Amino acid sequence: MKILLAGGGSGGSVSPLLAVANKIITHHPKAHFLLVGTNIGPEKNMAQAQHIEFTPIAVAKFRRYFSWANFIAPFLFIGAFYQSYKILKSYKPDCVFGAGSFVQVPIIWAAWFLNIPSVIHQQDVVLSLANKLCQLIVSKITVTFPESQANFSSSIGIFYKKNPDKVVATGNPFREQLVNGNKQIAITNFKLKSDLPTLLVLGGGTGAEFFNQLIKNCLPDLGKTVQIIHATGRGKGENIQHENYHGLVFLKEADLANAYAAADIVLSRAGLSAITELAYLKKLSIIVPMPHSHQEINGQYLMSKQAAIVIPQHKITSKNFTGLIRKLVFAQEVKLELEENIGKLMPKNAGAKIAEIIIKLAEK
């Protein structure tokens, strides 16, 4: 069995692909995977860490706002479609799986042209543009939240209709290896102090420039209260120096698992992959959604469930962020309540459900 995974540009669109691949392997140990992504995101490192073959393509990203780049996007798409067609003809996968990244669009369309079954997964409550562009031609659609099921259609125009059999609510896949983190190993590897609380800062697979600048500005005072493990992204934070600061360009899966195990508080964007990890691991979380994006809806959802502290980016300053961390270190009741609530957010077998769907399509 051969499965082509399509996603990249950020770690958020790749994590569910790898989580599902792990579940497929439990049923088909000899299954082979190829991850097709970009050269600009963390997906190559993520694939290699899981011993999955990787190949890049040049992709066209369509923007939902005015941009001159949209004028050349159709031409880039034609090139990406041609690359995808060649990869599919050569690899001959039994099924294609994507999770909402713009990388998947030319691959899914090329797969449809070659009559190869495909599955897409919708992580966020709001549909991604990539999934909208693929919804009519894929074999199956899985969604994290039941609320998203009604947003997909099976046809267009005056024949617009719903197809409940095509869209399945599964929850969001989780890389279960992250449960195996060890706090003592983290203390050793990251050179942590065993008597000081730990703040884990995750800006996504490519880092978050706002987080990097925030931590840099806060560090003189913040470093007196907590020690920090910080995934900065390439070229975005290597020059920060402090005895209680530990910055890394990219956290490999084993390092991330250990960092989670050591973390008392996590600062994160509101991507669904990150939220899924925080929910499974029941972490006290400060969520700062990326402004003017679908993440703001994810943040609102977390607030409605009282599952995390959600703060708009424009309301954060170095002073009030440091003050918040100091309060949370001693707010044991708040910590327990938020950890309990976030732990209830996600079904725990999403990866297995999606793997079963892909296997059935691949075996036909």
Helices and strands, with pairings:
Blueprint: E1 2-6, H1 15-27, E2 32-37, H2 43-49, E3 53-56, H3 69-91, E4 95-98, H4 104-113, E5 118-122, H5 129-134, E6 140-143, E7 167-169, H6 183-189, E8 198-202, H7 209-222, E9 227-231, E10 245-248, H8 253-262, E11 265-268, H9 272-281, E12 285-287, H10 295-304, E13 309-310, H11 318-330, H12 332-342, H13 350-363
Parallel strand pairs: 1-2, 1-4, 2-3, 4-5, 5-6, 6-7, 8-9, 8-11, 9-10, 11-12, 12-13
Helix/strand order: EHEHEHEHEHEEHEHEEHEHEHEHHH
**Largest beta sheet: strand ordering:** 3-2-1-4-5-6-7
Low-confidence stretches: 156-160
User: How many strands, which pairing sense, and closed or not: the largest β-sheet?
Assistant: 7 strands, parallel
What's the average pLDDT?
Answer: 89
Q: What proportion of the residues form beta strands (DSSP E)?
A: 5-15%
Radius of gyration: 21 Å
Shape: globular
Which structural category fits the helices and strands? alpha/beta
Give helix % range: 40-55%
> Number of helical runs?
13
What does this structure look like?
There is one protein chain. This protein is of the alpha/beta class and 364 residues long. Helix content is 41%, strand content 15%. It is built from 13 helices and 13 strands. A 7-stranded parallel β-sheet has the order 3-2-1-4-5-6-7, sandwiched between helices. A 6-stranded parallel β-sheet has the order 10-9-8-11-12-13, sandwiched between helices. The longest helix has 23 residues, at 69-91. The protein is globular and about 60 Å long. The termini are close together. The model is unreliable at 156-160 (pLDDT under 50).
